[in-house]
């Protein structure tokens, strides 16, 4: 059976905090992001940073958890046979098939590179449209979308790599 490694998922969820300190630093993209978002340093000082960091970690954990199912192909095979009522019965035909396939293909496509590829695809083809749609209605420009999508695509690539290889 494919199992989620919650420790690696929790580790992967730290990456958005680490990259965020770098990415949104005023010397990197911070000033451009603030300008494109219509924010000032005074507006940003008003937030409860402890709560923001805690919630960022919780939401990042949710993303890393989801990336387990996107990056690890063994979940797909396992889901095909889970509808069989005997799949969990040791020695049954369904259980033998599941065990045989997962044992022989346990590490197929289980690399950091493969997880990073799927994380990148997820960032560009799933997250980018969400950001772009919101940005259009919020009257934000391309720079706003590019900065945020770039950040989240890199985060998803690294988190996907971690959960795929180390799950």
Explained architecture:
- The longest helix has 26 residues, at 112-137.
- The radius of gyration is 20 Å and the shape is elongated.
- It has one domain (6-73, 109-166).
- It contains nine helices and no strands.
- The mean pLDDT is 92.
- The chain is an all-alpha fold and 167 residues long.
- Helix 1 packs antiparallel against helix 9 (142-166) and helix 8 packs antiparallel against helix 9 (142-166).
- Helix content is 76%, strand content 0%.
Which descriptors apply to this entry?
elongated; mainly alpha; 9 helices
In short:
The chain has nine helices and no strands. It is mainly alpha-helical.
Number of helices: 9
Main beta-sheet strand count, sense and barrel state: none
N-end to C-end Cα span: 12 Å
Helical percent range?
Answer: over 70%
Q: Can you tell me the number of structural domains?
A: 1
Shape, per Cα inertia axes = elongated
Q: Quick check: average pLDDT?
A: 92
Pattern of helices and strands = HHHHHHHHH
Q: Mind telling me the C-alpha Rg?
A: 20 Å
Proportion of beta-strand residues: under 5%
Class derived from helix and strand content:
mainly alpha
Number of strands: 0
Poorly predicted parts: none
């Amino acid at each position: 059976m494919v199992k989620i490694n919650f420790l690696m998922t929790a580790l992967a969820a730290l990456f958005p905090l680490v990259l965020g300190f770098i990415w949104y630093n005023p010397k990197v993209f911070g000033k451009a992001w603030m300008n494109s978002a219509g924010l000032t340093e005074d507006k940003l000082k008003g937030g409860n940073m402890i709560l923001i960091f805690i919630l960022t970690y919780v939401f990042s954990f949710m993303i890393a958890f989801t990336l387990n199912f996107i990056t690890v192909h063994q979940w797909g095979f396992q889901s095909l046979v889970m509808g069989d009522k005997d799949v969990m019965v040791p020695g049954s035909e369904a259980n033998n098939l599941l065990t045989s396939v997962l044992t022989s293909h346990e590490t197929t496509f289980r690399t950091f590179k493969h997880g990073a590829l799927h994380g990148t695809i997820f960032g560009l083809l799933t997250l980018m449209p969400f950001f772009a749609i919101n940005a259009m209605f919020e009257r934000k420009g391309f720079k706003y979308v590019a900065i945020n999508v770039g950040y989240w695509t890199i985060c998803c690539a690294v988190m996907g790599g971690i959960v795929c290889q180390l799950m």
